[in-house]
Here is the input.
Amino acid sequence: MLDQIRRCVRCGACRAVCPSFEVMGWESFNTRGRMMIIKRMLEERDGSWALDSIGTCTTCALCAQMCPAGVKSSKLVEDARRVLASRDIIGEWQRTIRDNISKTGNSLGESRGRREWLSLLGSRAFKERKERAESVYFAGCMASYRYPETAARTFEILSGFGVALLPAEQCCGSPLLRTGLDASGCMEENLRQIREMDADLVITGCAGCYTTLKNDYPGVNVVSVAEFLADHISEIEIRPLDITVAYHDPCHLGRMNGIFEPPRKVIKEICELEEMDKNRELARCCGGGGGVRAGYRDISLKIARRRLADAPPEVNYIVTACPMCVRNLNDAGGYGKIIDLVDLVAIAGRG
Ligand code: SF4
Ligand code: SF4
Here is the structure.
């Protein structure tokens, strides 16, 4: 960690883009300030005073994108959170996420069945779905419990290509890892099921699940639903729509994993696409990631409102490829105008 901090030349390029600094305005809420705070926190035994500064980073990595010294600041923030957690300095919201996942297997603490959305499948897809396959759809907590229609629409498409579900999917571990907590329990359980099914491909529609399965699980081959749709769009029954949409790049899909074009390809097969004011590598964060929505809802929604202001006026929808972005942007004043890419495909499927 110290080698990353020593790289920083204090230029402030990160300060100009940090979404939490934009809404908070204090040096301790931008990357450069967080560097100083992390340095001091490492030098002492306590560090509870650092929790809010370190906790309000959305891990969007926009600062790392801008940094001329190559500081991987979002990774540094996650490491700093791990140090605080090892000293048992965590927020109440982190405790809640940890308890939720250990008790219910999902970050939302839902005691309902994770697969209840299967009841929304069309009867043919329900009857013909496979229990085992080489490819599995990993729905994630947010889609399973907050966007069951989107989960069902996604699986309806994927099951047409022979994709199955894990028998007892758990949280991918992202909310734990991004906030510095141990995720080995749920990760090992998912990995065991993936291996038991002998699946060689995991397909996920959540940017958080995507980056976690791809970068934190050993040896798992992962594609996003956006990539899958882009590869198979000619085989899916859709009709062009006379509408215009903008595309919001989820940080953990776009900037962090380079998936920019596949969702745009799918959209352009369906309707007109207009770009957000900040897009691709420079896309502004929705404010929901890194535990900020869970721990600092006000800051999270203020960041989201700024992102909404980047949308071109007059678009019919803002399309994205992550249920967390859908949730946070709609909560911040999107009022249902933010939809998942799969929902757009479903509208085009209805003609
Ligand atoms: S990762 Fe995003 S929120 Fe965190 S310090 Fe960098 S720009 Fe700010
Ligand atoms: S952009 Fe990089 S070098 Fe410049 S202040 Fe931020 S972290 Fe330091």
About this structure: The CA atoms of residues 247 and 319 lie 5 Å apart. The mean pLDDT is 95. Residues 8-14, 31-32, 35, 63, 66-67, 69, 71, 73 surround iron/sulfur cluster (ligand 2) (CB under 6 Å). The chain has 19 helices and eight strands.
